[in-house]
Amino acid sequence: MSLLAVIALGGNALLRDGQLGTIDEQEQNTYDTLENIVFLIRKGYNIVITHGNGPQVGNILMQTDAGEQLYGIPQMPVDICVADSQGGVGYMIERMLRNVLKKHHISREVVTLITLTLVDPADPAFQNPTKRVGKKYTQEEAEKLEAVKGWKFKPEIKGNGGFRRVVPSPKPIRIMNHHVAETMARQGTIVIAAGGGGIPVFIDEDHNVRPAEVVVDKDLASARLASQIKADELFILTDVPFVYLDYKAPGEKPLETLSIKEAQQYLSENKFGEGSMAPKVEAAIQFLGNGGKKCIITEADKLSDKSFGTKIVKL
Question: 139: Cβ–Cβ under 8 A, 6 or more apart, which residues?
Answer without folding.
Answer: 163
